[in-house]
Amino acid sequence: MRVYLDNNATTMVAPEVVEEMTPFFTQMYGNPNSLHKFGTETHPYIAKAIDRIYKAINAADEDDVIITACATESNNWVLKSVYNDVIKNGEKNHIITTEVEHPSVLSTCKWLEEQGVKVTYLPVNEEGIVEAHVVKSFITGKTALVSVMWANNETGMIFPVKEIAQICRENGVLFHTDAVQAVGKIPVDVQDVKPDFMSFSAHKFHGPKGVGALYIKDSQPLSPLLHGGEHMGGRRSGTLNVPGIVGMGKAIEMATQNIEETMAKIRAKRDRLEDALLEIIPDTFTVGSREKRTPNTILISIRGVEGEGMLWDLNRYGIGASTGSACASEDLEANTVMLAIGADHELAHTGIRLSLSRYTTDEEIDYVIEHFKQAVERLRSISSSYAKVQPTPGGEAGECNIHH
Ligand code: C6P
User: Fold this and answer.
1) Do 219 and 62 form a contact (C-beta atoms < 8 A)?
2) Which of 12, 37, 174, 343 would give a disulfide with 347, using CB separation of 3.0 to 4.6 Å?
3) Whole-angstrom Cα distance, residue 27 to residue 22?
4) Which domains are present in the chain?
5) Atom number of ligand 1 nearest to Cα 104
6) pTM recorded for the entire structure
7) Is 400 a catalytic residue?
8) DSSP output for 250-280
9) pLDDT tens per residue, range 228-255
């Protein structure tokens, strides 16, 4: 059996999405900027896709949604443009973000620091989020931008973005949110939350890879990242990725229609898996309370079992999971979010992220429960560090914040 539980890294493209994309590879392959029929016949399909994206996030007509190649691009673009447009020649020179953002935000912030920008990296609390009042306490007259993710990719924890956006508005500060792990998992309504900028990516909600988006409230000016043509209203040059745009439109529509119902089913499977693992495997805990997490995500720590070893054993059983962000999977470092929420180094090496999708079945969950236990037993039997900490008084399985 093969079970894919790494849906926060990427997802299977929905068959209906593939079907809608297919004609744009071999039949309607014209460049949308060409004046002949081959080009112009793509226009209604692009318009329909953009319309679906607007509807899915409840964007207003006066807002802009620009198609990018990925959320990494969207995140880079916002941060670098705020630097170019607001910081470089103005009075403000300060950006606030969190310690647990995706590397596409954190690395860009590091680069901005090299350009002389002052960046505050807010620590998260023991649940793995930053509370709005903490953001407020760091805003000064020099703050140009706050960038806080909507949901974390490793823990699934949902941040109070609505309150943070309001605080930013009240203080005349721009607010960007990386909503990559929120769109398609929880309702995302830009009229309700009111971010100035929002990044998201099609391959996280059963769309194709290589296509993302940047939402811009009221189409406010943002200097282009890519120069060279009139594409996307001159804001992002490059021949349009028509199959990708069509696929993103179909995928976001499917992912957001009946989202509550779909997510209730995913949540039930996630909770069953989590309950079973916590019950049958001693000395395990999951990070963050379930109600405050995206419904598909578990970050589980298994005392005495190194995440990489566990991944390898799971992989042998055909189960795909991860120790955290796929972008940081090659450095074998401790889970950065677990470190940020206060785990010691040893514990931060024991995190396993399990992320479900609407295609995850009950049979797959049963299979994972059985083989997860076997893998833990094998690894603990050869672990010197687990022998040292046993037995733990009181059983110690549960959903909790990290104590060390
Ligand atoms: N996170 C993970 O395993 P792209 O792939 O560029 O469209 O998205 C990047 C990105 C940005 N923000 C967040 C919160 C993300 O989770 C990701 C992708 C994957 O967690 C791959 S590193």
Assistant:
1) yes
2) 343
3) 8
4) 3-9+259-385 (3.90.1150.10), 15-256 (3.40.640.10)
5) 11
6) 0.94
7) no
8) HHHHHHHTTHHHHHHHHHHHHHHHHHHHHHH
9) 877 777 788 899 999 999 999 999 999 9
